[in-house]
Amino acid sequence: MPIYFDHNATTPLEPRVLEAMLPYLSGPYGNPSSVHRYGRAARDAVEAARLQVAALVGAQPAEVVWTSGGTESNNLALKGAVAVAKQPSRILYGSTEHPAVLETAESMRQQGWQVETIAIDGQGLVDWPAFEAQLARGPLCVAALMVANNETGVLQDVPRAAALVHAAKALLLADAVQGAGKLPLDFAASGADLMSLSSHKLYGPKGVGALVIRSGVELAPLMHGGGQERGLRGGTENVASIVGFGAAAELAQQELEARNAHLLALRERLVAGLHALPGISIFGEQSPRLSNTVQFGLKGWEGEALLMALDRKGIAVSSGSACSSGKGEPSHVLLGMGLARDVAYGAIRVSLGKDNTAAEVDRFLAVLGELRAAQLAA
Ligand SMILES: Cc1ncc(COP(=O)(O)O)c(C=O)c1O
Protein backbone atom coordinates (compact mmCIF):
# COMPACT_ATOMS: atom_id res chain seq x y z
CA MET A 1 0.00 0.00 0.00
CA PRO A 2 1.35 3.44 -0.88
CA ILE A 3 1.92 5.83 2.02
CA TYR A 4 0.84 9.47 1.86
CA PHE A 5 2.95 11.74 4.08
CA ASP A 6 2.27 15.06 2.32
CA HIS A 7 -0.73 16.47 4.17
CA ASN A 8 0.67 20.02 4.29
CA ALA A 9 0.47 20.04 0.49
CA THR A 10 -3.13 18.88 0.59
CA THR A 11 -5.36 16.43 2.42
CA PRO A 12 -7.77 13.83 1.07
CA LEU A 13 -11.43 14.79 1.09
CA GLU A 14 -12.94 13.36 4.26
CA PRO A 15 -15.89 11.04 3.37
CA ARG A 16 -18.19 12.80 5.87
CA VAL A 17 -17.38 16.10 4.13
CA LEU A 18 -18.19 14.63 0.72
CA GLU A 19 -21.48 13.40 2.13
CA ALA A 20 -22.35 16.93 3.30
CA MET A 21 -21.45 18.36 -0.12
CA LEU A 22 -23.24 15.88 -2.37
CA PRO A 23 -26.77 17.27 -1.94
CA TYR A 24 -25.50 20.67 -3.12
CA LEU A 25 -24.01 19.17 -6.26
CA SER A 26 -26.98 17.03 -7.19
CA GLY A 27 -29.90 18.83 -5.50
CA PRO A 28 -30.48 22.45 -4.41
CA TYR A 29 -28.94 24.52 -7.18
CA GLY A 30 -30.24 27.99 -6.41
CA ASN A 31 -28.10 31.10 -6.47
CA PRO A 32 -27.63 32.33 -2.89
CA SER A 33 -28.40 35.87 -4.07
CA SER A 34 -31.84 34.90 -5.42
CA VAL A 35 -34.74 35.78 -3.15
CA HIS A 36 -36.97 32.84 -4.07
CA ARG A 37 -36.98 29.52 -2.24
CA TYR A 38 -34.19 28.03 -4.36
CA GLY A 39 -31.96 30.95 -3.54
CA ARG A 40 -32.89 30.92 0.12
CA ALA A 41 -31.96 27.23 0.46
CA ALA A 42 -28.51 27.94 -0.98
CA ARG A 43 -28.12 31.06 1.18
CA ASP A 44 -29.00 29.08 4.32
CA ALA A 45 -26.31 26.50 3.48
CA VAL A 46 -23.68 29.17 2.89
CA GLU A 47 -24.54 30.92 6.17
CA ALA A 48 -24.52 27.66 8.14
CA ALA A 49 -21.01 27.00 6.82
CA ARG A 50 -19.98 30.51 7.83
CA LEU A 51 -20.97 29.71 11.42
CA GLN A 52 -18.93 26.47 11.31
CA VAL A 53 -15.78 28.13 9.97
CA ALA A 54 -16.10 31.09 12.35
CA ALA A 55 -16.47 28.68 15.29
CA LEU A 56 -13.29 26.80 14.33
CA VAL A 57 -11.17 29.96 14.62
CA GLY A 58 -13.02 31.91 17.33
CA ALA A 59 -14.30 34.61 14.97
CA GLN A 60 -17.69 36.24 14.46
CA PRO A 61 -19.52 34.80 11.43
CA ALA A 62 -19.78 38.32 9.96
CA GLU A 63 -15.97 38.49 9.96
CA VAL A 64 -15.65 35.51 7.55
CA VAL A 65 -15.37 36.29 3.81
CA TRP A 66 -15.31 33.35 1.37
CA THR A 67 -12.47 33.17 -1.12
CA SER A 68 -11.02 30.55 -3.48
CA GLY A 69 -8.36 29.53 -0.92
CA GLY A 70 -5.30 30.64 1.02
CA THR A 71 -3.63 32.32 -1.94
CA GLU A 72 -6.59 34.56 -2.67
CA SER A 73 -7.07 35.31 1.03
CA ASN A 74 -3.49 36.52 1.36
CA ASN A 75 -3.83 38.57 -1.83
CA LEU A 76 -7.08 40.15 -0.66
CA ALA A 77 -5.60 40.95 2.75
CA LEU A 78 -2.43 42.61 1.52
CA LYS A 79 -3.64 44.24 -1.68
CA GLY A 80 -6.92 45.20 -0.03
CA ALA A 81 -5.16 46.89 2.90
CA VAL A 82 -2.71 48.70 0.68
CA ALA A 83 -5.45 49.94 -1.68
CA VAL A 84 -7.22 51.89 1.07
CA ALA A 85 -4.04 53.40 2.54
CA LYS A 86 -3.71 57.18 2.13
CA GLN A 87 -0.13 56.98 0.86
CA PRO A 88 2.51 54.27 0.31
CA SER A 89 4.48 53.29 3.39
CA ARG A 90 5.92 49.90 4.39
CA ILE A 91 4.82 46.30 4.11
CA LEU A 92 6.66 43.72 6.25
CA TYR A 93 6.55 39.95 5.97
CA GLY A 94 8.43 37.11 7.67
CA SER A 95 11.25 35.72 5.55
CA THR A 96 9.77 32.21 5.87
CA GLU A 97 6.23 33.14 4.70
CA HIS A 98 4.45 31.16 2.00
CA PRO A 99 4.85 32.47 -1.59
CA ALA A 100 1.19 33.57 -1.46
CA VAL A 101 2.32 36.28 0.99
CA LEU A 102 5.87 36.80 -0.20
CA GLU A 103 5.10 37.21 -3.90
CA THR A 104 2.05 39.36 -3.19
CA ALA A 105 4.05 41.72 -1.00
CA GLU A 106 6.91 41.85 -3.48
CA SER A 107 4.48 42.73 -6.30
CA MET A 108 3.74 46.01 -4.54
CA ARG A 109 7.22 47.43 -4.86
CA GLN A 110 6.38 48.74 -8.32
CA GLN A 111 3.58 50.81 -6.79
CA GLY A 112 5.99 52.70 -4.60
CA TRP A 113 5.70 50.56 -1.48
CA GLN A 114 8.71 49.77 0.64
CA VAL A 115 8.71 46.01 1.17
CA GLU A 116 10.92 44.51 3.88
CA THR A 117 11.33 41.06 5.39
CA ILE A 118 11.06 40.34 9.10
CA ALA A 119 14.19 38.50 10.27
CA ILE A 120 13.66 34.88 11.32
CA ASP A 121 16.20 33.04 13.46
CA GLY A 122 17.83 29.65 12.95
CA GLN A 123 14.98 27.90 14.79
CA GLY A 124 12.33 29.48 12.53
CA LEU A 125 11.11 32.08 15.05
CA VAL A 126 10.86 35.86 14.73
CA ASP A 127 13.98 37.72 15.84
CA TRP A 128 12.05 39.98 18.22
CA PRO A 129 14.69 42.65 18.95
CA ALA A 130 15.30 43.04 15.20
CA PHE A 131 11.54 43.25 14.56
CA GLU A 132 11.06 45.93 17.23
CA ALA A 133 13.93 47.96 15.84
CA GLN A 134 12.46 47.58 12.34
CA LEU A 135 9.04 48.78 13.48
CA ALA A 136 10.61 51.87 15.02
CA ARG A 137 12.23 52.85 11.70
CA GLY A 138 9.15 54.40 10.05
CA PRO A 139 5.47 54.17 9.25
CA LEU A 140 3.93 50.80 8.47
CA CYS A 141 0.71 49.77 6.70
CA VAL A 142 0.58 46.01 7.15
CA ALA A 143 2.77 43.16 8.43
CA ALA A 144 2.31 39.46 7.68
CA LEU A 145 3.37 36.61 9.91
CA MET A 146 2.23 33.02 9.57
CA VAL A 147 0.65 31.05 12.41
CA ALA A 148 2.41 27.82 11.39
CA ASN A 149 5.05 27.27 8.75
CA ASN A 150 4.11 24.90 5.94
CA GLU A 151 7.61 23.37 5.71
CA THR A 152 9.02 23.24 9.24
CA GLY A 153 5.71 23.42 11.13
CA VAL A 154 7.23 26.12 13.40
CA LEU A 155 4.61 28.19 15.24
CA GLN A 156 4.93 31.96 15.58
CA ASP A 157 3.79 34.05 18.54
CA VAL A 158 1.01 35.93 16.73
CA PRO A 159 -0.35 37.83 19.81
CA ARG A 160 3.12 39.22 20.51
CA ALA A 161 3.49 40.35 16.89
CA ALA A 162 -0.03 41.84 16.91
CA ALA A 163 0.71 43.97 19.98
CA LEU A 164 3.85 45.38 18.37
CA VAL A 165 2.20 45.98 15.00
CA HIS A 166 -0.79 47.69 16.61
CA ALA A 167 1.54 49.97 18.57
CA ALA A 168 2.89 50.96 15.14
CA LYS A 169 -0.74 51.73 14.09
CA ALA A 170 -0.71 49.06 11.40
CA LEU A 171 -2.55 45.83 10.57
CA LEU A 172 -1.36 42.26 11.11
CA LEU A 173 -2.17 39.48 8.65
CA ALA A 174 -1.82 36.01 10.18
CA ASP A 175 -1.67 33.28 7.55
CA ALA A 176 -3.36 30.42 9.40
CA VAL A 177 -3.66 28.08 6.40
CA GLN A 178 -1.49 25.45 8.10
CA GLY A 179 -2.71 26.18 11.62
CA ALA A 180 -6.48 25.94 11.21
CA GLY A 181 -7.80 22.52 12.12
CA LYS A 182 -4.42 21.54 13.60
CA LEU A 183 -4.20 23.99 16.50
CA PRO A 184 -6.79 25.63 18.73
CA LEU A 185 -7.13 29.09 17.14
CA ASP A 186 -8.80 32.13 18.66
CA PHE A 187 -8.97 34.95 16.14
CA ALA A 188 -10.43 37.35 18.68
CA ALA A 189 -7.69 36.72 21.25
CA SER A 190 -4.85 36.50 18.70
CA GLY A 191 -4.95 40.22 18.01
CA ALA A 192 -4.62 39.56 14.27
CA ASP A 193 -6.67 41.86 12.06
CA LEU A 194 -6.76 39.49 9.10
CA MET A 195 -6.49 35.71 9.04
CA SER A 196 -6.21 33.46 5.97
CA LEU A 197 -7.75 29.98 5.89
CA SER A 198 -7.92 27.21 3.30
CA SER A 199 -10.28 24.25 3.20
CA HIS A 200 -8.07 21.67 1.47
CA LYS A 201 -5.55 21.60 4.31
CA LEU A 202 -8.18 20.31 6.73
CA TYR A 203 -9.84 17.51 4.74
CA GLY A 204 -12.20 19.82 2.87
CA PRO A 205 -12.44 20.43 -0.88
CA LYS A 206 -9.81 22.35 -2.84
CA GLY A 207 -10.45 25.83 -4.24
CA VAL A 208 -12.29 27.32 -1.28
CA GLY A 209 -11.03 29.29 1.70
CA ALA A 210 -11.76 32.37 3.73
CA LEU A 211 -10.29 35.61 4.89
CA VAL A 212 -11.30 36.53 8.43
CA ILE A 213 -11.47 40.30 8.70
CA ARG A 214 -11.72 41.93 12.11
CA SER A 215 -14.87 44.00 12.25
CA GLY A 216 -14.04 47.64 11.52
CA VAL A 217 -10.98 46.85 9.38
CA GLU A 218 -11.34 48.43 5.96
CA LEU A 219 -10.20 46.60 2.81
CA ALA A 220 -10.72 47.17 -0.91
CA PRO A 221 -11.98 44.15 -2.89
CA LEU A 222 -9.90 42.36 -5.52
CA MET A 223 -13.02 41.11 -7.26
CA HIS A 224 -15.78 43.57 -8.12
CA GLY A 225 -19.14 42.25 -9.16
CA GLY A 226 -22.53 41.55 -7.72
CA GLY A 227 -21.79 42.78 -4.20
CA GLN A 228 -21.47 39.32 -2.64
CA GLU A 229 -19.62 38.98 0.66
CA ARG A 230 -20.48 42.55 1.68
CA GLY A 231 -18.92 43.82 -1.53
CA LEU A 232 -15.53 42.31 -0.61
CA ARG A 233 -15.65 39.41 -3.03
CA GLY A 234 -17.97 39.63 -6.01
CA GLY A 235 -19.06 36.40 -7.73
CA THR A 236 -21.67 33.72 -7.15
CA GLU A 237 -20.63 31.59 -4.19
CA ASN A 238 -19.27 28.05 -4.72
CA VAL A 239 -22.06 26.63 -2.57
CA ALA A 240 -21.10 22.92 -2.46
CA SER A 241 -17.46 23.70 -1.68
CA ILE A 242 -18.39 26.23 0.98
CA VAL A 243 -20.67 23.61 2.55
CA GLY A 244 -17.73 21.17 2.44
CA PHE A 245 -15.40 23.68 4.05
CA GLY A 246 -17.96 24.24 6.81
CA ALA A 247 -18.37 20.51 7.43
CA ALA A 248 -14.58 19.99 7.46
CA ALA A 249 -14.19 22.88 9.92
CA GLU A 250 -16.81 21.44 12.26
CA LEU A 251 -15.22 17.98 12.20
CA ALA A 252 -11.78 19.49 12.78
CA GLN A 253 -13.10 21.38 15.79
CA GLN A 254 -14.81 18.32 17.25
CA GLU A 255 -11.83 16.03 16.66
CA LEU A 256 -8.97 18.47 17.24
CA GLU A 257 -7.76 16.96 20.50
CA ALA A 258 -8.00 13.36 19.37
CA ARG A 259 -6.31 14.11 16.04
CA ASN A 260 -3.50 15.99 17.76
CA ALA A 261 -2.87 13.28 20.35
CA HIS A 262 -2.63 10.70 17.55
CA LEU A 263 -0.39 12.91 15.39
CA LEU A 264 1.90 13.81 18.26
CA ALA A 265 2.45 10.14 19.10
CA LEU A 266 3.26 9.45 15.43
CA ARG A 267 5.59 12.43 15.25
CA GLU A 268 7.48 11.34 18.35
CA ARG A 269 7.88 7.86 16.92
CA LEU A 270 9.13 9.33 13.66
CA VAL A 271 11.58 11.74 15.31
CA ALA A 272 12.97 9.01 17.58
CA GLY A 273 13.59 6.81 14.53
CA LEU A 274 15.13 9.66 12.51
CA HIS A 275 17.60 10.41 15.30
CA ALA A 276 19.06 6.92 14.81
CA LEU A 277 20.14 7.83 11.24
CA PRO A 278 23.68 9.12 10.68
CA GLY A 279 23.98 12.78 9.61
CA ILE A 280 20.38 13.79 10.41
CA SER A 281 19.24 17.34 11.24
CA ILE A 282 15.66 18.21 12.06
CA PHE A 283 14.84 21.80 11.18
CA GLY A 284 13.23 24.01 13.82
CA GLU A 285 13.46 21.14 16.28
CA GLN A 286 13.88 23.40 19.32
CA SER A 287 10.76 25.45 18.49
CA PRO A 288 7.07 24.83 19.13
CA ARG A 289 5.83 23.04 16.01
CA LEU A 290 2.72 21.53 14.44
CA SER A 291 2.12 18.03 15.70
CA ASN A 292 2.00 16.65 12.13
CA THR A 293 5.14 18.14 10.59
CA VAL A 294 8.82 17.15 10.57
CA GLN A 295 11.32 18.62 8.13
CA PHE A 296 14.77 17.12 8.09
CA GLY A 297 17.95 16.73 6.06
CA LEU A 298 20.44 13.89 5.79
CA LYS A 299 23.98 15.17 5.29
CA GLY A 300 25.24 14.72 1.73
CA TRP A 301 21.88 13.77 0.27
CA GLU A 302 19.77 15.98 -2.00
CA GLY A 303 16.13 16.24 -0.96
CA GLU A 304 14.84 15.90 -4.50
CA ALA A 305 16.82 12.66 -5.08
CA LEU A 306 15.60 11.22 -1.80
CA LEU A 307 12.01 12.22 -2.59
CA MET A 308 12.19 10.32 -5.89
CA ALA A 309 13.77 7.28 -4.23
CA LEU A 310 10.99 7.25 -1.63
CA ASP A 311 8.36 7.70 -4.34
CA ARG A 312 9.69 4.60 -6.10
CA LYS A 313 9.08 2.76 -2.81
CA GLY A 314 5.49 4.07 -2.71
CA ILE A 315 6.03 6.79 -0.08
CA ALA A 316 4.93 10.35 -0.87
CA VAL A 317 6.77 13.17 0.93
CA SER A 318 7.81 16.65 -0.13
CA SER A 319 11.22 18.21 -0.53
CA GLY A 320 10.04 21.64 0.58
CA SER A 321 6.81 23.44 -0.12
CA ALA A 322 4.73 21.76 -2.83
CA CYS A 323 4.84 24.90 -4.90
CA SER A 324 8.63 25.16 -4.98
CA SER A 325 9.51 21.51 -5.46
CA GLY A 326 10.70 20.84 -8.95
CA LYS A 327 12.08 24.38 -9.25
CA GLY A 328 15.59 23.23 -8.43
CA GLU A 329 16.01 26.03 -5.90
CA PRO A 330 16.55 25.29 -2.23
CA SER A 331 13.70 26.09 0.13
CA HIS A 332 13.46 29.85 0.81
CA VAL A 333 12.14 28.92 4.27
CA LEU A 334 15.39 27.27 5.27
CA LEU A 335 17.46 29.99 3.61
CA GLY A 336 15.31 32.51 5.51
CA MET A 337 16.31 30.72 8.73
CA GLY A 338 19.94 31.30 7.79
CA LEU A 339 20.77 27.71 6.80
CA ALA A 340 23.47 27.10 4.21
CA ARG A 341 22.31 26.32 0.65
CA ASP A 342 23.72 22.77 0.67
CA VAL A 343 21.86 22.01 3.91
CA ALA A 344 18.63 23.52 2.52
CA TYR A 345 19.00 21.40 -0.64
CA GLY A 346 18.74 18.30 1.52
CA ALA A 347 15.33 19.08 3.00
CA ILE A 348 12.59 16.48 3.15
CA ARG A 349 9.23 17.29 4.70
CA VAL A 350 7.02 14.65 6.22
CA SER A 351 3.54 15.95 6.99
CA LEU A 352 1.38 13.37 8.70
CA GLY A 353 -2.39 13.09 8.53
CA LYS A 354 -5.12 11.93 10.86
CA ASP A 355 -5.43 8.58 9.09
CA ASN A 356 -1.73 7.68 9.09
CA THR A 357 -0.65 4.82 11.34
CA ALA A 358 2.33 3.80 13.46
CA ALA A 359 2.92 0.93 11.01
CA GLU A 360 3.31 3.47 8.18
CA VAL A 361 5.83 5.48 10.22
CA ASP A 362 7.77 2.28 10.93
CA ARG A 363 7.74 1.31 7.25
CA PHE A 364 8.96 4.79 6.28
CA LEU A 365 11.81 4.58 8.81
CA ALA A 366 12.79 1.11 7.59
CA VAL A 367 12.85 2.22 3.93
CA LEU A 368 14.76 5.39 4.77
CA GLY A 369 17.27 3.40 6.79
CA GLU A 370 17.85 1.00 3.87
CA LEU A 371 18.21 3.84 1.36
CA ARG A 372 20.64 5.65 3.66
CA ALA A 373 22.74 2.53 4.20
CA ALA A 374 22.87 1.92 0.42
CA GLN A 375 23.80 5.56 -0.20
CA LEU A 376 26.59 5.54 2.38
CA ALA A 377 27.92 2.23 1.01
CA ALA A 378 27.97 3.49 -2.61
C1 LIG B 1 1.01 28.72 4.75
C2 LIG B 1 0.25 28.67 3.47
N1 LIG B 1 -0.36 29.78 3.03
C3 LIG B 1 -1.07 29.78 1.89
C4 LIG B 1 -1.20 28.66 1.11
C5 LIG B 1 -2.00 28.70 -0.15
O1 LIG B 1 -3.24 28.10 0.05
P1 LIG B 1 -4.13 27.58 -1.20
O2 LIG B 1 -3.49 26.35 -1.69
O3 LIG B 1 -5.48 27.35 -0.61
O4 LIG B 1 -4.14 28.69 -2.21
C6 LIG B 1 -0.56 27.47 1.53
C7 LIG B 1 -0.62 26.24 0.71
O5 LIG B 1 0.28 25.42 0.74
C8 LIG B 1 0.17 27.48 2.75
O6 LIG B 1 0.79 26.38 3.20
Please tell me about this protein's structure.
About 1% of the residues have low confidence. The chain is globular, with a radius of gyration of 21 Å. The chain folds into 2 domains: 131 residues, Aspartate Aminotransferase, domain 1 (Alpha-Beta Complex); 237 residues, Type I PLP-dependent aspartate aminotransferase-like (Major domain) (Aspartate Aminotransferase, domain 2, 3-Layer(aba) Sandwich), CATH 3.40.640.10. It is α/β, with parallel strands linked by helices and 378 residues long. The protein contains 12 helices and 12 strands. Helix content is 40%, strand content 14%. Helix 4 links the parallel strand 3 and strand 4. A 7-stranded mixed sheet has the order 2-8-7-6-5-3-4, with helices on both faces. The protein has a 3-stranded antiparallel sheet with strand order 9-10-12. The protein has a two-stranded parallel ribbon with strand order 1-11. The structure holds pyridoxal-5'-phosphate. Pyridoxal-5'-phosphate binds next to helix 3.
Gap between N and C termini: 28 Å
CATH topology term of the largest domain: Aspartate Aminotransferase, domain 2
| CATH homologous superfamily classification of the largest domain | Type I PLP-dependent aspartate aminotransferase-like (Major domain)
- Give the DSSP E fraction (strand runs of 2 or more residues): 5-15%
CATH architecture of the largest domain: 3-Layer(aba) Sandwich
Q: How do the strands line up in the largest sheet? A: 2-8-7-6-5-3-4
Query: N-to-C SSE series?
Result: EHHEHEHEHEHEHEEHEEHEHHEH
Q: Structural class of the secondary structure composition?
A: alpha/beta
User: What fraction, in percent, of the residue positions are helical?
Assistant: 40-55%
* Count of DSSP strands: 12
Bound molecules: pyridoxal-5'-phosphate
Which consecutive residue ranges, at least 5 long each, have pLDDT under 50?
A: 321-325
* Overall form: globular
For the residues shown, what is the average pLDDT? 95
Question: Biggest sheet, in brief?
Answer: 7 strands, mixed
Number of domains: 2
The total of helices stands at: 12
The CATH class of the largest domain is: Alpha Beta
